[in-house]
Amino acid sequence: MSKKKTVRYDSRLHPHLIYIYRKQGYDRKDLAETLGIGVRQLDGWLKRYPEAEKAFRIEPGEMDRIIQKALMKMVDGYEKKETVETYKKNKDGQEELVERKVTTKHVEGNPAALKLWLEKFLKNNEDDDGDDYEDREFVD
Question: Which of 33, 40, 77, 140 could form a disulfide with 109 if both were Cys (CB 3.0 to 4.6 A apart)?
Protein backbone atom coordinates (compact mmCIF):
# COMPACT_ATOMS: atom_id res chain seq x y z
CA MET A 1 0.00 0.00 0.00
CA SER A 2 1.54 3.27 -1.09
CA LYS A 3 1.15 6.39 1.00
CA LYS A 4 -0.15 9.51 -0.69
CA LYS A 5 1.40 12.88 0.07
CA THR A 6 -0.89 15.31 1.90
CA VAL A 7 -2.13 18.01 -0.43
CA ARG A 8 -3.56 21.19 1.07
CA TYR A 9 -7.07 22.04 -0.02
CA ASP A 10 -7.37 25.21 -2.12
CA SER A 11 -10.92 26.60 -2.28
CA ARG A 12 -10.10 28.54 -5.46
CA LEU A 13 -8.87 25.47 -7.33
CA HIS A 14 -10.12 22.16 -6.01
CA PRO A 15 -13.90 22.61 -6.35
CA HIS A 16 -13.39 23.39 -10.04
CA LEU A 17 -11.12 20.38 -10.55
CA ILE A 18 -13.55 18.13 -8.70
CA TYR A 19 -16.42 19.29 -10.88
CA ILE A 20 -14.47 18.92 -14.15
CA TYR A 21 -13.29 15.40 -13.35
CA ARG A 22 -16.71 14.32 -12.06
CA LYS A 23 -18.29 15.62 -15.27
CA GLN A 24 -15.87 13.35 -17.15
CA GLY A 25 -17.14 10.38 -15.14
CA TYR A 26 -14.39 9.95 -12.53
CA ASP A 27 -15.44 8.05 -9.42
CA ARG A 28 -14.02 8.76 -5.94
CA LYS A 29 -10.99 6.53 -6.43
CA ASP A 30 -10.09 7.93 -9.87
CA LEU A 31 -10.67 11.48 -8.67
CA ALA A 32 -8.46 11.08 -5.61
CA GLU A 33 -5.71 9.51 -7.70
CA THR A 34 -5.86 12.33 -10.24
CA LEU A 35 -5.69 14.96 -7.50
CA GLY A 36 -2.71 13.17 -5.97
CA ILE A 37 -4.45 12.38 -2.70
CA GLY A 38 -5.92 9.36 -0.98
CA VAL A 39 -9.61 8.49 -1.00
CA ARG A 40 -9.79 9.15 2.75
CA GLN A 41 -8.40 12.66 2.24
CA LEU A 42 -10.90 13.29 -0.56
CA ASP A 43 -13.72 12.11 1.72
CA GLY A 44 -12.42 14.49 4.40
CA TRP A 45 -12.49 17.38 1.94
CA LEU A 46 -16.04 16.51 0.91
CA LYS A 47 -17.16 16.53 4.54
CA ARG A 48 -15.19 19.62 5.58
CA TYR A 49 -15.66 21.91 2.57
CA PRO A 50 -19.24 22.48 1.37
CA GLU A 51 -18.10 23.86 -2.00
CA ALA A 52 -16.11 20.66 -2.68
CA GLU A 53 -19.07 18.50 -1.72
CA LYS A 54 -21.37 20.55 -3.94
CA ALA A 55 -18.93 20.27 -6.86
CA PHE A 56 -18.79 16.50 -6.32
CA ARG A 57 -22.58 16.15 -6.28
CA ILE A 58 -23.58 18.69 -8.92
CA GLU A 59 -25.06 17.45 -12.18
CA PRO A 60 -23.64 18.87 -15.43
CA GLY A 61 -27.01 20.36 -16.41
CA GLU A 62 -27.23 22.17 -13.08
CA MET A 63 -23.80 23.71 -13.63
CA ASP A 64 -24.96 24.97 -17.03
CA ARG A 65 -27.95 26.64 -15.35
CA ILE A 66 -25.65 28.28 -12.77
CA ILE A 67 -23.35 29.54 -15.52
CA GLN A 68 -26.26 30.86 -17.60
CA LYS A 69 -27.72 32.69 -14.61
CA ALA A 70 -24.35 34.29 -13.78
CA LEU A 71 -23.73 35.33 -17.39
CA MET A 72 -27.20 36.86 -17.78
CA LYS A 73 -26.67 38.78 -14.54
CA MET A 74 -23.44 40.14 -16.02
CA VAL A 75 -25.19 41.03 -19.29
CA ASP A 76 -28.02 42.93 -17.58
CA GLY A 77 -25.95 44.57 -14.89
CA TYR A 78 -26.72 44.28 -11.20
CA GLU A 79 -26.60 46.00 -7.83
CA LYS A 80 -23.98 45.10 -5.26
CA LYS A 81 -23.38 46.26 -1.72
CA GLU A 82 -19.95 47.48 -0.73
CA THR A 83 -18.95 47.80 2.91
CA VAL A 84 -16.13 50.04 4.10
CA GLU A 85 -15.13 49.76 7.74
CA THR A 86 -12.90 52.23 9.57
CA TYR A 87 -11.00 51.09 12.63
CA LYS A 88 -9.09 53.05 15.24
CA LYS A 89 -6.80 51.84 18.01
CA ASN A 90 -8.14 52.55 21.47
CA LYS A 91 -6.01 53.40 24.52
CA ASP A 92 -5.42 49.66 25.16
CA GLY A 93 -3.98 49.20 21.66
CA GLN A 94 -6.98 47.20 20.49
CA GLU A 95 -8.62 48.06 17.18
CA GLU A 96 -12.25 49.02 17.45
CA LEU A 97 -14.78 49.77 14.77
CA VAL A 98 -15.39 53.49 14.40
CA GLU A 99 -17.54 53.58 11.29
CA ARG A 100 -19.19 51.14 8.91
CA LYS A 101 -20.43 52.53 5.63
CA VAL A 102 -22.54 50.38 3.32
CA THR A 103 -23.19 51.66 -0.18
CA THR A 104 -25.09 50.11 -3.04
CA LYS A 105 -23.38 50.36 -6.39
CA HIS A 106 -24.68 49.56 -9.83
CA VAL A 107 -22.44 47.35 -11.96
CA GLU A 108 -23.01 48.08 -15.64
CA GLY A 109 -23.87 45.24 -18.00
CA ASN A 110 -21.02 43.62 -19.88
CA PRO A 111 -21.55 42.83 -23.58
CA ALA A 112 -18.66 40.35 -23.48
CA ALA A 113 -20.77 38.18 -21.15
CA LEU A 114 -23.47 38.01 -23.83
CA LYS A 115 -20.88 36.85 -26.34
CA LEU A 116 -19.75 34.11 -23.93
CA TRP A 117 -23.36 33.07 -23.36
CA LEU A 118 -24.04 32.90 -27.09
CA GLU A 119 -20.90 30.87 -27.73
CA LYS A 120 -21.50 28.42 -24.89
CA PHE A 121 -25.23 27.89 -25.18
CA LEU A 122 -26.21 28.68 -28.76
CA LYS A 123 -23.22 28.29 -31.07
CA ASN A 124 -22.98 24.51 -30.91
CA ASN A 125 -26.64 23.82 -30.30
CA GLU A 126 -27.21 20.41 -31.86
CA ASP A 127 -30.97 20.99 -31.93
CA ASP A 128 -30.58 23.94 -34.33
CA ASP A 129 -32.33 22.90 -37.51
CA GLY A 130 -31.86 26.22 -39.30
CA ASP A 131 -35.40 27.56 -38.74
CA ASP A 132 -35.76 31.30 -38.48
CA TYR A 133 -36.03 32.59 -34.94
CA GLU A 134 -39.54 33.98 -35.48
CA ASP A 135 -40.83 30.58 -36.61
CA ARG A 136 -39.54 28.67 -33.60
CA GLU A 137 -41.86 27.46 -30.86
CA PHE A 138 -40.57 27.60 -27.31
CA VAL A 139 -42.17 25.19 -24.90
CA ASP A 140 -41.44 25.09 -21.17
Answer: 77
In this prediction, residue 3 carries a pLDDT of 59
How does DSSP assign 79-133, residue by residue? EEEEEEEEEEE-TTS-EEEEEEEEEEEEEPP-HHHHHHHHIIIIIT-TT-----G
Q: What single DSSP character describes residue 135?
A: G
Q: CA-to-CA distance for 36 and 121, rounded, in angstroms? A: 33
Q: What angle do CA 70, 74, 77 make, to 5 degrees?
A: 130
CB within 8 Å of 120: residues ≥ 6 apart: 67, 71
Entry pTM: 0.43
Helix (H, G, I), strand (E, B) or coil at 33: helix
